[in-house]
Fold:
Amino acid sequence: MNVLDITDLRIILPGSARPVVDGVGLTVAAGETVALVGESGSGKTLTSRSVLGLLPPGARAEGSIRVAGDDVVTMDSARLRALRTSTAAMIFQDPRAAINPLRRIGDFLTEGVVSNKTLKRATATARASELLRAVGVDEGALRRYPGQVSGGMLQRVMIAAALMGDPALLLADEPTTALDVTTQAEVIALLTRLRERFGTGMLFVTHDLDLAAAISDRVYVMYAGRIAETGPATELFARPGHPYTAGLLASTPRLDAPGRRLTAIDGRPPDLRTALTGCPFAPRCPSSTEICGERAPLPTAAPGRPDHRFACHHGRRLAEGSPADA
Amino acid sequence: MPEPVLEAVNLTRAFGAVRAVDGVSFTLPKGGSLGIVGESGSGKTTTARIVVGLEQADDGQILVDGRPRTARVRGRAARLARAREVQMVFQDPFLSLDPRLSVEAVLRETLRLHFPGADHAPRIRQLLDQVGLGTRAADALPRRLSGGQRQRVAIARALAVEPAVLVLDEAVAALDVSVQAQILNLLADIREQTSIGYLFITHDLAVVGCVTDDVIVMRRGAVVEAGATAEVLNAPRHPYTRLLLASVPRPGWNPGRIAAERRAL
Structure:
């Protein structure tokens, strides 16, 4: 069963000429790790935040977002509150910005489940120390303040907090971007272990293609509010069907090919003040032809691989070619 | 080997009991590119700030073209001459530009300060052209520009005074990959056209592989490994360098083993 099922999601911000998120569909099954990859402004963060009903003021969501079967778009605030403390939880990018510095870590961990009356205070504290041990933090941290522990430590506290309500779905928004590489490896190892132990489904939002390839089962690539490409991680990175995915791979510096000049994608993403006709990537695309500027491409599957889909008029030709050497 | 344009000899800087920079030495040849990699707390940024002059070393020396770069200078002319030796590009182009000055005004101000009396229009056009900004961008205020364009402006401003050394402190870290590639290529082009030397501070090993000839790896204030970039990346000698390289995500990556190695080190 899918713990997250988004269909045809559109998010409209006041004052913009086009939806910030435009017809996005994605699923996360129980125990599955799914990466949502994109650059700034692609709509990936807004998509993940909309799952918890966390939209900016004035924003309107259309379509459906089902978390463990319940539609978030039509939920009232009481049910949203219950959803955020039990069914789904989010790990934010910067733990220092997301955790109240004036309250003890123990309070931060137990506040949600206690105020929601899911657990009694004593049971909640016991669970908090158990989870802290599970993420490799000494339970003495319960009495400390956020300013007294390191950033990597605090990110583990945030992960423990996300697991307090025993969620079916974890939303991780760039959870390791603010961390050093060696700390990142530790946090990822921890998330992988916890997923195996608790069977949680995870939507991992990141701008880092290599990280997405390394940890996820499936990947969605977003561009200008739309899903450009989706497929199994290994398949998508070895044989990208969308020129944007291929371009991203070619512009990423690689350790195994140092000193090589990068193939940059010229230009920049369309801004929100202009409406889009045709394919949003067409003005930057090396393969674009007349049709690309006229009609928006519909997602099509790669030949013989129904789970690898891309929204590109020329995608079939690209995917049938030899494996990308990028 | 060309003669060094920048030399750091035994730099030391302590903040209280913490030795942030502890006996760091390196040499940047004329027109060369040297990377300093390390994690937070390694002392790489403090080292860069000492080179630029934003921070004072407790001990040690910086030489530019063989002449000691004195920590404090007296007088306007000496201060400007000192600024022309080393220029810096910061991580966040959103914070390092004056929001009230157009791109052209930023460059004009810098040129007027350093080269008074001359007609600056041709040089401004040349600089904009060099960093790939059009005339439309020249009249824009920073808030009208994208992150990549702002970083181009910051680079143009630094180049305006024709420095011997450009210090880039995580200069591409805040950019999206597609834009980051444009800026990395731009930096490679500029180095080919001029004889400027780069001191490239970064946490990203793949970026170091792209833009530097030599690299030093710092940990807890000290240099743990130094050498040609290709050699250090292909055959790292120090266990910490090996750990850093293993930590970079890739298919078949085993974060659990890296975590165990990190605790062992």
